[in-house]
Structure formats: structure tokens, C-alpha cells
Design brief:
The protein has 190 residues and is of the alpha+beta class. It has two domains: 101 residues, no CATH class; 53 residues, no CATH class. The protein is 17% helix and 23% strand. The chain is built from three helices and nine strands. The strands form three sheets. Strands 4-3-2-1-5 form a five-stranded antiparallel sheet. The longest helix has 16 residues. It is elongated. The N and C termini lie far apart (58 Å). One of its GO terms (cellular component) is mitochondrion. InterPro entries: Ribosomal_mS34.
Length: 190
């Protein structure tokens, strides 16, 4: 008789970090682990263990709670960018970690160096742009003299910025529709 699964499934694939670290010498200091959740990205994502301090004999062993807590500091590289030392103790219980063999570590470090060497250039947007048609109509009706819009950006990841006075932008902002991915859907509409 086949098994019938009930409920939602999770996307974790691997072991708990404390299970991996507990089997290694010096609790795996210097070793590299990855989360299977982040293997979907083309850029390298991994953790290098800096220090691990498990809370021993805490919890109920028969409930699979033993050695699930503690403090673990790792050097975090996310999508080819070094994020520095981070405390991932709150995520260490998830069954999502995989130890990288020592002979595979060079492959991850090489991919990381390629990402560092080919860093993305920052997008520089122009200081002003033309108003959208509806906004231009409303501005003209209300008596505004200018039809040029000042650009203000709220950028969290520092990948782009507004050009300084006299600086040449490398991105052009235009008003209008771009070519659609499926032009046959728009036949006869315009």
C-alpha cells in the first residue's frame, strides 16, 4: 500500500548544523558549510565557521532536543559578497546544512574570487526625467511651469545612485511602453 503524505512539505535538505559541528574536531572551526536553500543562486554562498560554543546536556535527548542550542559565529558569504562575521545560532537547528569536503573548498573559494574580481558597476541615473503623460497633464492644469521631474531614489543595496552635478549618467530613463515579451497578445490593441 503506498504512503499518503499529509500536510505541507519543507524545502530543507541536509542535517542540523549542530549535528555536523558536533562530529568535527574543534567543533569545525575553519571548515566550510552551505545551506541547501542558497544553492539555487549562481553566485557562491557559504559559511566558514569561526567559533562554536554548544550548550551541552540541555533539553530532552529522547525528544531529539539535545545539542540543538548554542552560539555559533560564521564568516558569511552570500551571493559572492562577504557579509562579515555573523551569529547564525537561531538558524542552526534547521535541517538545511551540508559540510563541504576539504577538496571542494577550493572550488567555492575560486568562484568567490571570480565574483569579487567581476564586481558589478553601479548604475548612475540622470538627475531629471520627463514627466509621465498623465502627471504632465495634471501639472499643466494646475499651473505648474516645469514639466521636468526631479529624481529621488531610496536605494537599500547601494547598486545605483543619482548623478552628481555635471556627471554623465550610464542609465537612460524613458517614458513609454517597452516591447512586450508576447507581442501577439497586444495585436489590435494599439
Amino acid at each position: 500500500m503506498p504512503y499518503k503524505l499529509v500536510g505541507r512539505t519543507h524545502t530543507f535538505y541536509g542535517r542540523r548544523l549542530w549535528e555536523i559541528v558536533g562530529l568535527l574536531k574543534d567543533f569545525g572551526v575553519g571548515r566550510m558549510v552551505v545551506r541547501s536553500r542558497f544553492e539555487r543562486y549562481p553566485e557562491p554562498t557559504f559559511y566558514r565557521i569561526v567559533s562554536a560554543q554548544p550548550e551541552m546536556d540541555n533539553g530532552d535527548p529522547h525528544k531529539d532536543e539535545d545539542n540543538m542550542r548554542g552560539k555559533i559565529l560564521v564568516e558569511r558569504v552570500f551571493r559572492g559578497k562577504n557579509c562579515g562575521v555573523a551569529n547564525i545560532s537561531k538558524a542552526a537547528y534547521k535541517t538545511d546544512f551540508r559540510l563541504i569536503h576539504k577538496h571542494e573548498e577550493a572550488k567555492y573559494l575560486e568562484a568567490y574570487q571570480r565574483c569579487v574580481n567581476t564586481s558589478r558597476e553601479r548604475k548612475i541615473f540622470p538627475r531629471t526625467m520627463e514627466m509621465p503623460p498623465l502627471l504632465k497633464f495634471v501639472a499643466k492644469r494646475e499651473g505648474h511651469a516645469s514639466d521636468v521631474l526631479q529624481i529621488k531614489m531610496a536605494n537599500k543595496n547601494n547598486n545605483s545612485r543619482v548623478a552628481e552635478e555635471g556627471e554623465e549618467p550610464n542609465v537612460e530613463v524613458s517614458i513609454g511602453l517597452t516591447t512586450p515579451h508576447s507581442p501577439q497578445l497586444y495585436e489590435g490593441v494599439f
